Amino acid sequence: MALALEQVGVAFGGFRALTDVSLSVNAGDVVGLIGPNGAGKTTCINVLTGFQRPSSGRVLLDGRDVSALPAHRLRRAGVARTFQAGRLFGGLDVLDNLACTGVGLGLRRAESERQASDLLGWMGIAPLESRPAAGLPYTDERRVAIARALMGDPAYLLLDEPAAGMSEAEANDLAALIRRIAHDRGIGCLLIEHNVGLVLSVCSDVVVLDGGRVIEHGDRNVILGSRAVREAYLGAHTEAA
Ligand SMILES: Nc1ncnc2c1ncn2[C@@H]1O[C@H](COP(=O)(O)OP(=O)(O)OP(=O)(O)O)[C@@H](O)[C@H]1O
């Protein structure tokens, strides 16, 4: 069981944002996707979630070609995401943010509220239930966005820079949460992060993009030993990571 890009290209007019990109996320694994600004990471997530149609290549969900499916269909098929900005419904409280999403996914209201409440408890943020989403501190907003993405029990979760703006301690808590999501719930996760230390501590497998192409792919040792990665992205961070 896997969610995969197969030789995907994306062109915006004459600009090629992705060229021949292949990557795969297995159920229960956490795969990292790193690269410098503008490398094409978010475009990969957009393609995997139906927000962007590939210009060439295929998106495969458990072996089925889903390249033409729109975002709402892919979400119902089990592919969930978070965004760089939380994108919560600011006027609703936290429970309703999750419950509305569940209803949108086809759950009955009562069932959706129960699932929302269970999820917030599982994540250790039950006290936030009745707080308005608009007033949440940044880290809580991120956690609620992840909880919302878990509504409907997706098979895959794509996280776009979830640790941006977090302290080291908060990022460590986030790392523990991502491990639990993968191990306890069996969800395949794709993690985009500029915090390379976080990626290397959580991910069994890391894909490195530069200029819209995959320039390296492998485990922590492969990434840390890669000259191409050092030159393209890690630079002075290599030893610290
Ligand atoms: N809708 C679009 N139209 C035109 N160009 C786009 C569009 N979306 C992305 N791009 C360009 O494609 C390239 C890849 O963008 P993308 O956001 O995927 O990179 P990224 O690796 O996620 O960057 P960052 O780390 O800064 O978020 C960038 O040069 C970006 O400007």
TrEMBL record:
Name the PANTHER family on file. ABC TRANSPORTER ATP-BINDING PROTEIN, CONSERVED COMPONENT OF ABC TRANSPORTER FOR NATURAL AMINO ACIDS-RELATED
| PROSITE patterns, alphabetized | ABC_TRANSPORTER_2
UniProt keyword terms in alphabetical order = ATP-binding, Nucleotide-binding, Transport
Instruction: Report the domain of life of the source organism.
Output: Bacteria
Q: What is this protein called?
A: ABC transporter ATP-binding protein
Q: Which organism is it from?
A: Gemmobacter denitrificans
Pfam families named among the record's database cross-references? ABC_tran
GO MF annotation list: ATP binding
Q: Where is the ABC transporter domain?
A: 3-236
